[in-house]
Structure to design on (184 residues):
């Protein structure tokens, strides 16, 4: 999304007010801003707190309830497991970079199919995406499995190094002898 050049205020009655057009708008309008690449920011009308992420999540929830959902229950469960986990920020950045790459690839594919096939390319695009996704899903699964295994190994190595360093640091220190302490 581009820089926010449109301010939307959310009022306690859950209505959204577009300050540019001086009119109330709907979540469908906000979705339209996203699809057109128009920057915007949603704030609480009273406190000024940024609610943009909350509104975007609300739109996603509504979209998930219509037709074929984008997120499977398994994927949502896996994502929930990362909240509060040390890898939470890493996963968020990974998903963002993956979506950027996926969008770039989709745009290039559209451009190339239009150059090669003209208007017919747009009709063929669905078939090409189906073939591509048939390859992408297993490839992404393999890539994530490899990433998780490497992360696990790295965490194990760090833990072992910390344990060894701690043992080396405290190896010259003796614990007090309890029988000597009680005689003093």
């Amino acid at each position: 999304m581009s820089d926010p050049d449109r301010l939307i205020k959310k009022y306690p009655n859950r209505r959204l007010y577009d300050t540019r057009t001086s009119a109330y708008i709907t979540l469908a309008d906000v979705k339209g801003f996203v699809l057109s690449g128009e920057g915007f920011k949603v704030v609480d009308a009273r406190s000024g707190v940024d609610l943009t992420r909350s509104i975007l999540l609300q739109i996603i929830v509504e979209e998930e309830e219509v037709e074929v959902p984008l997120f499977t229950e398994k994927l949502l469960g896996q994502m929930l497991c990362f909240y509060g986990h040390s890898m939470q920020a890493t996963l968020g950045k990974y998903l963002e970079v993956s979506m950027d790459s996926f969008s770039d690839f989709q745009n290039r594919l559209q451009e190339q199919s239009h150059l090669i096939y003209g208007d017919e390319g747009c009709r063929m695009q669905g078939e090409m995406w189906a073939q591509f996704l048939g390859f992408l899903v297993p490839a992404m699964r393999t890539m994530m499995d490899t990433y998780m295994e490497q992360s696990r190994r790295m965490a194990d190595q760090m833990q072992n190094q910390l344990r060894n360093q701690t043992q080396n640091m405290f190896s010259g220190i003796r614990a007090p002898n309890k029988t000597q302490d009680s005689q003093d």
Observations:
- The mean pLDDT is 83.
- Helices lie at 27-36, 52-64, 73-81, 88-117, 120-170, 178-183.
- Residues 120-170 form the longest helix (51 residues).
- Residues 12 and 158 are 49 Å apart (CA to CA).
